[in-house]
Fold:
Amino acid sequence: MMQKRCKRNDVDCLFYTINRAIIEFLRDIWQEIERQEVRKFSSRDMSLSRPPSPPEGLDTIEQRKPRKAWRRYVQALMLVLLVIPILVAWQLLNSRFNSTDPTVAGRPLSNPRTHLHVIALGDKAGTVYLGTHYGLFTSTDGGNTWPEARGELNSMMIMSIAVSPANARDLAVIGRPTTGAAFQGNLYFSADGGANWQAGNAPAGLSPSAYLFSLQAGTADGGQFYAFYEYAGWYETRDMGRHWYAITSGTLSAMLTPTLLTDYTDPNHLYLGGEQGLYESRDDGRHWKQITAVSGNVLSLVASRTVPRVIFCSTEEGKLYRWREGDSQISSIAGLPMKSAPERLAIDPSGKILYGMVGRDLWSSHDGGTTWRHRSQFDRSDMVSLIVDPLNANHIYAGFFLPAKVVSSTDGGGTWQGLTE
Structure:
């Protein structure tokens, strides 16, 4: 999982801030006009009971008040007339910056104002999903072609994508408005592989500060997904977002950048890692037990799909832990050739190849993390996804935020080819 960063891109933050400032400014002006009107009429009513006016040329303070109020009224009106064209121009500029269509057919990231937020693979060979600033794009041939003229949910930033391993046609995404209308997003679900979408319900009783941050698929059939809300914790649904219940509380809910690992053989078996360390639950989050052998802030957590599984966990303290499901001992791997433990891990289902990102450098291991080989160095550090093809351990995808770009490698990261250019 990426480290916590600004939840909105810079352009949207700017649009939102200026729109709010203009609206509040106009509101303040209107309130001031109303106050001046009240004072003016109050002054007129009071003048009926006042004594005769003083000699000509000797204005009293009371006589000067209506004139001062009138000048403020005129000044406020002039400001309103000045702000209106600015507001209209800004809204037109906002619309221009939020044109959602790709500028080149067949290239979903060709719009220079789009960003890439996430890559996900479907269970069917060749299915690749891109979560972009302007919707969801799908390729069915490994990213070689992208037939959609525009993305699904193209008025939304697709921040996270989850594909159910139990039923690959069950999808869930986090969608957040591309305009400055709102910071909070929503969960959307599809039961037909992304052809149709329906908004899910939010968990009951969420506080206004709860922020929808990440999404993960469970391994049970019937629409099991997990959603993480900052300042609220993890919630689970087993009916495609109709009903939710909390699986964390207390300090576990307070973690800001947690990683959840599910079990393909047991839907009730979970691992949860973050700044509070690593925890395990065998009853679907009702009870959690800390794994004290793993110390420090958990950065990445992956596992093979073998039986038993091999699990890898990297921490901010520079350690990479490895253990086999059911082992009584968990130990860190010594003698890593890189400067620190990988902050991002990826593994194929068979556990044949383990990949790790350290800064801009990609490393791979063919023996469960004991020895490593440097594969490549990227020229940028804004990676958002590193995904291994479940059918080919040497086939990997990498995605980058801005300028948005997706590349793939069929030789384990030695060479790369662009998929969206």
User: Anything to note?
Assistant: Residues 1-16, 45-49 have pLDDT under 50 and may be disordered. Residues 55 and 256 are 73 Å apart (CA to CA).
